[in-house]
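Input.
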Amino acid sequence: MELRTLRYFLAVAYEGNITHVAESLYISQPSLTRQIQMLEEELGCKLFVRKRHSVELTPEGLELRSRAIEALQIIENIEQDFAARDDKAIAGSVFVAAAETAGMRTVACVAAKQRTKYPGIVFELTTGDAFSVADRLDKGLADVAVFCEPANVAKYHCRRLPEMDTWGVLMRADDPLAQKEAVVSSDFVHRPCYISAQQRSTSHETNPFRTWMGRRRGQFKTAGTLDLVRNAATMVAASGELSLTFESIAGYTGDDLVFRPLSPTLQTGSFAAWKRGRTFSDAARLFIDTLKEELEAREGPPRPHPTP
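Output.
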């Protein structure tokens, strides 16, 4: 299987039209069609359903699209890392997968210092929930991951980040709860609320919000799950429902919404993590080492992290 063929496949998968892709790649339509057919023959399955003026991915095609994206990114990472070795200064990409958390402030501060000293270093950021962040770290698609608590980071090297996230509720400005200074557990009764997928799947014993709800946890109603607060904010603005989120990211959601903290106050931390035993590029290794030095300078030697 050639990398060129995978790139052809991805182009067709995104465009949905072989003729248009052939024109954009300056190759003939029959040649591109034959490349796709050879790939299907090699894999022993159909990747596209042919229609009159378009093509759609089969289930096997959807699986290949996901794996091809990952494979090509790994190849590009290798090419960038080795190309950077030709330069005298450290250069190359550092891949960071992160949850939306105040802990990113420290990560961003260290990244900014690295960019100032080594302009050839490029930071490639991906934002997602705990599952997608862990998946990218485990597959080698991220050098460093940033997790919100609660997080099972025992299998990684990790450092606790100094910032704390304050929990609260995002709501429309005309919501009756907006008149309050803080939200208490009884306010959630009969008020459906959007929560993160991580919170929904975390057990009662390790879920800080469910512990905070106490005896009223059974009265909490879920409106849906989210991974990015901006999308949840759109749902809140349209529905008038609530969204559980962090104060540090609630300010990026628009003027028509307001944030109110929980009472009593609920705060949780975050971790920066990286895989054990992995060989890093010079740029990624420098970033990790600098991050560790920054954290030790602020708080002293690493403290043990909790295991949910």
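The mean pLDDT is 87.
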